[in-house]
Amino acid sequence: MKNYTFKLFTSLLLLSTFIIFSSGVNSSGAAQTTSNKFVSSGLREINPPPIDDQNRVIAIVGATLISPSSNIINDSTVVIRGPEIAAAGPRQSIPIPDGAEIVKTTGLFLIPGLIDSHFHIERDYDLPRLYLTHGVTSLRDPGQWIQIYDPIRKSPLPQPRCFVAGPHLDSPPHAHPLDAFTVTNAEQTRLAVNRFIDEGASVIKVYYRLPLNLMEVACKSAHARGVPVTAHLELVSAADAIRAGLDGIEHITSFGTALADPVDAERFREAVAADNEARRKARYELWSRLDLEQSSRVKPLLQEIMKNKIFVSATLAVFERRRGDRGTSETEVRGFENMLKFAGMCQRAGATLVVGSHSSVPKAERGWAYQRELELLAECGLSPAEVLAAATLNNARYFRTGNRLGSTEHGKLADLVLLRANPLENVANYRKVDRVMLNGRWFTP
Fold this sequence. Notes:
- This protein is an alpha/beta fold.
- Helix content is 33%, strand content 17%.
- The chain is built from 14 helices and 19 strands.
- The strands form 5 sheets. The protein has a 5-stranded mixed sheet, with no helix packed on it. A 5-stranded parallel sheet has the order 12-13-14-15-16.
- The chain is globular and about 70 Å long.
- It starts with a helix and ends with a strand.
């Protein structure tokens, strides 16, 4: 019995040593300095920011503190030790440690770092850093080969935390062949899921040509590894895909065939099955014909979303079409209006909306797609506090990192943004970034 106990103890010790060591090395083999507290804390980014000095103390004093996890604090103090938030609250209740670097921020507004659930790098290696200057401290790319991020992982410059999926799992013919990985049976699907998780994926994305039975295999395989699955849907009904085990859905348009009249939905499927490019026009036609107020299909779909706790990354900005836009048809305008309306209905039903920028959208300059998405979420009915939650804590929970990111409170990592104007008064104020803190280090735009 004693010999068995000793062997068990030795095995556990070796296992824990392996986990700690593995968490301190990134995929390229470079050593990372990481707080032991966060070694096994949820799913991981592929480029953990370095820590210069674990004992360095910064006190941010005087800002209005706005966080989804607490009430608004008009005159706050936030103490940062190394990469972590050591204390946060009213100025009079938070003592400032001796030797702390004091940063006076009266008149500014302090929020958690913004998180982007749907970012496409497309080898634009300056774009993540540009997003960081605009307050986005974490992002997730749902559909690129992980190796494409090697220049970001190896960069000596500050970069947002990058979470990755690997290529999306799909069946041919692919809409995006360079970003797709072909699976045609259950065994191929299981092997692909495990391969990409082994390579660093913290989410698996299934694409719209993947049949429903293989979506279910992908979900079971990923969930066995503790990794969520999200989907871009066009052909498979969202209600069926949710029941297959999804954790999230990318794009508001993914709900179209579940909401549409069955005849319209089948016509859409036939067109897209024959030609991937048909979806670009056909999705607006499909959405323009929806009657969301009268349809008997809306309530059951919302119930499925709620019952299964689906995260909805609407990416409204990439579909935005307005009257007066050059080359925009009335069908596109009506279709987009219904997309906005359904996103608002999801929020009012209690669904969890998150912010995904899609990186490049029609009505935003380069680097500002995220802020345009915030503005559209406000337009479709989210309150200022709900927009902030969608941008921060909701996304942190979607990433399964809510215990270390997404809010400004004791024990979390110090990813913070100082704004020059109150985002609860006007969502456009998210564009007024004064400076950004990533992992306890200032990054000034």
